[in-house]
Amino acid sequence: LSKRDLQSVRAAVGFKNLINPQAQDYKRLNMERITSPNLQEELLLNTPGLLRTPIGRNGKQATVGYAPEVWESWE
Q: How is the chain classified by DSSP, letter by letter?
């Protein structure tokens, strides 16, 4: 994701919902200890394995994780 895309998805789903705590990089980077929002965002931009996927987008709406019931309601 680009920085602008990340910010758009974050606005729709919330920052904590973007992060996959089961990812190997999550533990390796000690994400639970990083409190700076700017550093967290930078790590997400540079380490896409930290993101929960799939990321679905429909205009300003977005989902993270598998959500076919939501996607079906989008026009």
A: --HHHHHHHHHHH-HHHHB-TTSHHHHHTTGGG---HHHHHHHHHH-GGGB-S-EEEETTEEEES--HHHHHH--
CA dihedral 38, 60, 73, 49 (to 10 degrees): -30
Crossing angle between the packed helical segments 3-13 and 37-46, to the nearest 10 degrees? 120
pLDDT (tens digit per residue) in 16-58: 999 999 999 999 999 999 999 899 999 999 999 999 999 999 9
pTM: 0.84
Closest CA to 40 of 12, 16, 11: 16
